[in-house]
């Protein structure tokens, strides 16, 4: 199945899927069952030939994530009190502070984890969901890799929330310096959780179905 | 695994017994003839490249050992001092529990529960459940009661147990604080680092299809 010519790279070869054979495969353990069975005989997971409401759930979580992502960027993540004066910093403000201190490496980590990954995730999930109904240029294989990347990388956005938690428990030195969490920490954590749920709701088998329809 | 040529495109009803030798890729639904995969080999889906099965020799025993080690390290990480920060003669010591409860005041209070779950509770549930499911497997005994439900829980919790994300957060926080105060690392910090390494090793050994197959085989015998 590997060598199907360069002209063919965007198209998956016609393959017998469990669905086309009138069967249903378990997405947890791979066991194949006759249609109509509700739960997998091996692992007990719910069986669905294709999750018809998958896309609806993807978009619902996607919008929920987007809605809470806006305040996460506008409101302060950290409230710092040093020698009596209080300053608040947002996600982007925190990155700029780190750059002023000369910690470019850490600034990059925070920038990637809190801004690049969430934005990239919103775009990637939307692209994957749209590619089911509309013809796109990326091959099914490319989209599968993109989906795996989104699933793998999503949880790493939590870094900034953990940083806020550690800083506010550690830096409690009365007058000299104290740090408290801002409300943006909550909405950012929710945004990460919602986009993780959005990615988990996506049924990757739909990618391959769509690419076969294109090829046919 | 080898794919089946698409000659029988018309759906025909199949009896339960006939589907035993088949395997469907969880990612792309390609139907395959199931083969025995030898220990040390990795079976990938010929269509989408998804890792289907990767049994490892003595994997069950190793996973149990690693999960036990992780549990012990978690206890150490919770009760020993985690980090200590000092400036101008004052110092403050934070344990892992202080970190978890950092959000406990005002509007950010709900985040306390989330933090406790992501860093401590969910990882602990996963370790205990794995020992519960794989213990009888490694000992060659029939599966424990509800082993199926428990292992499904282990798999569902996988993305939500964020110990390794937390440790990167600690590193970033240390750099931020280093500019304004003296920081020293406590024994709990090193316990947690070890915990992360053990968790990653354990997840590398684990192959869920192999576990499901073993559970299934033990039930029937």
UniProtKB/TrEMBL annotation, chain A:
Gene Ontology CC: plasma membrane
Membrane-traversing stretches: 59-84, 104-132, 153-173, 179-197
InterPro entries: PqiA-like, PqiA-PqiB_transport
Keyword Membrane found: yes
Superkingdom, taxonomy of origin: Bacteria
Compartmental location: Cell inner membrane
Alphabetically ordered keywords of this record: Cell inner membrane, Cell membrane, Membrane, Transmembrane, Transmembrane helix
Identification of the protein by name: Paraquat-inducible protein A
Organism: Salipiger mucosus DSM 16094
From TrEMBL, chain B:
Keywords: Membrane, Transmembrane, Transmembrane helix
Transmembrane intervals: 63-83, 113-135, 156-175, 181-201
Any single Pfam family the record assigns to this protein: PqiA
Record flagged with keyword ATP-binding: no
Superkingdom, taxonomy of origin: Bacteria
UniProt signal peptide: none
InterPro entries, sorted: PqiA-like
Protein name: Paraquat-inducible protein A
Organism: Salipiger mucosus DSM 16094
Organism classification: Bacteria, Pseudomonadati, Pseudomonadota, Alphaproteobacteria, Rhodobacterales
């Amino acid at each position: 199945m590997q060598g199907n010519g360069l002209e063919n790279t965007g198209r998956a070869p016609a393959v017998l899927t469990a669905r086309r054979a009138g069967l249903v495969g378990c997405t947890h353990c791979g066991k194949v069952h006759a249609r109509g069975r509700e739960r997998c005989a091996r692992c007990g997971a719910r069986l669905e030939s294709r999750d018809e409401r998958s896309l609806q759930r993807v978009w619902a979580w996607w919008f929920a994530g987007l809605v809470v992502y806006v305040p996460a960027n506008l409101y302060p993540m950290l409230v710092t009190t040093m020698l009596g004066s209080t300053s608040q910093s947002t996600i982007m403000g925190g990155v700029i502070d780190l750059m002023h201190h000369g910690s470019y490496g850490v600034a990059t980590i925070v920038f990637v984890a809190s801004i690049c990954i969430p934005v990239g995730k919103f775009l990637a999930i939307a692209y994957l969901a749209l590619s089911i109904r509309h013809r796109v240029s990326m091959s099914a294989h490319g989209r599968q890799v993109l989906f795996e990347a989104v699933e793998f990388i999503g949880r790493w956005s939590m870094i900034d929330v953990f940083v806020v938690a550690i800083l506010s428990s550690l830096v409690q030195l009365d007058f000299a310096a104290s740090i408290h969490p801002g409300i943006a920490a909550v909405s950012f954590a929710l945004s990460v959780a919602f986009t993780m749920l959005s990615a988990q709701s996506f049924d990757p088998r739909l990618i391959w179905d769509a690419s076969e329809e294109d090829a046919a | 695994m080898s794919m089946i040529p698409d000659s029988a495109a018309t759906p025909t009803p199949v009896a339960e017994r006939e589907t035993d030798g088949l395997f469907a890729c969880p990612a792309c639904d390609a139907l395959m003839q199931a083969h025995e995969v030898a220990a040390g080999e990795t079976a990938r889906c010929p269509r989408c490249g998804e890792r289907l099965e990767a049994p490892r020799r003595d994997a069950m025993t190793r996973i149990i050992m690693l999960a036990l080690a992780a549990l012990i390290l978690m206890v150490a990480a919770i009760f020993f001092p985690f980090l200590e920060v000092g400036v101008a003669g004052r110092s403050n010591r934070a344990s892992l529990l202080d970190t978890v409860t950092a959000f406990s005041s005002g509007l950010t209070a709900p985040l306390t529960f989330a933090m406790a779950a992501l860093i401590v509770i969910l990882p602990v549930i996963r370790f205990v459940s794995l020992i519960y499911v794989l213990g009888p497997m490694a000992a060659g005994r029939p599966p424990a009661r509800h082993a199926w439900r428990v292992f499904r829980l282990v798999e569902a919790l996988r993305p939500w147990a964020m110990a390794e994300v937390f440790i990167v957060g600690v590193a970033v926080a240390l750099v931020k604080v280093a500019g304004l105060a003296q920081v020293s690392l406590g024994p709990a910090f090193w316990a947690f680092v070890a915990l992360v390494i053990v968790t990653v090793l354990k997840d590398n050994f684990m192959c869920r299809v192999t576990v499901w197959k073993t559970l299934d085989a033990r039930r029937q015998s």
